[in-house]
Structure formats: C-alpha cells, structure tokens
Amino acid sequence: MNIVSKSKKRVVLPSRPDPPTVDQILEDINRAAPTDPVFSALERTGQDSPRPSDSDMELRFRQCRQYLDLNERLQEARGRLLRQREELRSAGEQLDRDVLEAKGQAL
C-alpha cells in the first residue's frame, strides 16, 4: 500500500490595501449623514456625552484641591503622631527605670 501525501496548493492572498489618509477619513466623516449608525452608536454608549459646564469643572477642581490639601494635612499629622508615640514610649521606659531605681533605694 502506497500512501501518497497530497500537498495543498498554497493560496496567495491579495495584499492588504493601504490605510486611508487623514484627509480621506475627514472627508468620509464630513460626508456622513447625521443619521449614520456610527453616530447613533456613539450616543448609546455615552461617548458623545456633552462636556461638563465650567461651573461643574470648577466645583470638581475645588473638591480635588480640598482633597489634596486634606491628604497633606493628614500626612503631617501622621508624622507628628509617630514622633509623639516615640516620645511617649521613651518616657515610659524612663519611668519604668526610675520606678525600679526608687524601689531599689527603698529596700
């Protein structure tokens, strides 16, 4: 029994077309009707949402600024608390030594 492998002919695909230029894309967009499905799809996904008003942006900016200021104050307070904790720890250790020394002198 003789098994012969059949080689498949290689299909040559046509080359890809060149991508459109910026001018061609802009021309296509300008010629599209307002009812074009692409524009309605953008509205449904919210990608074509209106820009927030200046007062909204100002409010958001102030909120961000307040957040950053508060965060900085919290970091400073954290540093102060860490220093105070170390001072209290060392004062407590000193107090323990003084109490032991006083007990030793009392005996």
TrEMBL record:
* Keywords tagged on the record: Coiled coil
Q: Known Pfam families for this protein?
A: UPF0449 (PF15136)
Q: Does the keyword Coiled coil apply?
A: yes
Q: Which InterPro entries match?
A: UPF0449
Q: Which residues form a coiled coil?
A: 67-94
Q: Is Metal-binding among the key words of this record?
A: no
Residue ranges annotated as compositionally biased, kind Basic residues, are: 1-11
Chain residue ranges for the region called Disordered: 1-23
Family designation: Belongs to the UPF0449 family.
Kindly give the PANTHER family that the UniProt entry links to this protein.
Answer: UPF0449 PROTEIN C19ORF25 (PTHR34766:SF1)
Q: What is this protein called?
A: Putative UPF0449 protein C19orf25-like
**Which species expresses this protein natively?**
Scophthalmus maximus
